[in-house]
Design brief:
single chain, 5 helices, elongated, mainly alpha, Serine Threonine Protein Phosphatase 5, Tetratricopeptide repeat, 91% helix
């Protein structure tokens, strides 16, 4: 009888001790992941901000920063960062006259906005699409009028 009680108490002690250890490990791991994710989301935001400041003077450097931000955002599944990065990249592509690439990117980003119901960026993207198509129409009109004269 005494031996059974001793074994039960010892088992419960070690079981609780193991459970506490597992809880601490899970807590520390999740804290580390949260801190890592926060650093990564900050990196995405910083790269986008840097690209927005430099895209007129150095569009190629801005494009490189945006591609890095988009890659990180995809890796950590940071949809908001992905939306902002791709929208900014689309605007840069439009600025560079790469209208078809901007259209493809805007349409891809619209699908992401739909998944998280981001109405602000959804309206921004449709506005940007309208601007790209307007630029294409203006270019088309200029090319047809210059051929006619």
């Amino acid at each position: 009888m005494f031996l059974n009680k001793f074994i039960n108490k010892t088992f419960h002690f070690f079981a609780l001790s193991a459970l506490r250890t597992i809880i601490i490990i899970v807590f520390l791991f999740s804290t580390h992941l949260y801190a890592q994710n926060k650093e990564d989301t900050s990196a995405v935001s910083s790269l986008i901000a840097k690209a927005r400041k430099t895209y007129r003077e150095n569009p190629q450097a801005a494009l490189k920063d945006l591609n890095s931000a988009i890659t990180i955002a995809e890796k950590i599944k940071f949809k908001k960062g992905l939306i902002v990065g791709q929208t900014t990249k689309g605007s840069l592509l439009r600025h560079l006259g790469e209208y078809d690439s901007a259209i493809v990117l805007y349409n891809k980003t619209i699908k992401i906005c739909d998944t998280i119901k981001d109405w602000y960026y959804l309206s921004t993207l449709f506005n940007n699409l309208g601007n790209v198509y307007l630029k294409k129409v203006i270019e088309h009109l200029h090319s047809t009028t210059s051929r006619n004269h």
